[in-house]
Request: fold
Amino acid sequence: MTRRRQQTETSPRGRGQRPRRVGEELRHALTEILRTEKLRDPALAGASITVTEVAMSPDLRNATAYVMPLGGARSAEIIAGLRRSAAFLRGLAARRLGLRYAPALSFALDPSFDEAERVRALLARPEVARDLGPPDETAAKPDDERP
Reply:
C-alpha cells in the first residue's frame, strides 16, 4: 500500500522545501553575478538590477527570475537584454551553485512593485484615510461606559 504525502500550509500544491531553497540560492547567485560580472549586452551595461524572487519548477529544471531595474527605468530594454544573456547567466550560476543540472532561466518584471503602488494609492484616498485615522472622540461611547 502506498501512502500519499499530506499537503500542508507550508507546502503549497504539494511542492517541497527544496525548490524554495534552490530558488533562494539561485537568487543570491544571480544578484552577485549581475552586481560583479561584466556583461557584454549593451542593455545591461551599467544597469542596477534587483532580483526579487526566483520561482523554481518542482523538478528544478526551469526557473523564472523576477527582476526590477533601479527606479523601473528602461525595464523593457533590460528584460530583453537579460533574455538574450540567459544562457550565459545560466552557466555562471551553475558554476556558483554546483548543481548537477542548471535550470533554464527566464526573466520577468516583478509585479509586486506595481501592486504595492496600487495599494498605496488606495490607502491615500481621502475616504480610506478617514477610516484609517485615529478614532473620532465625539463618537458615541458604548452603553457600559455611560454615566
About this structure: The longest helix spans residues 17-36.
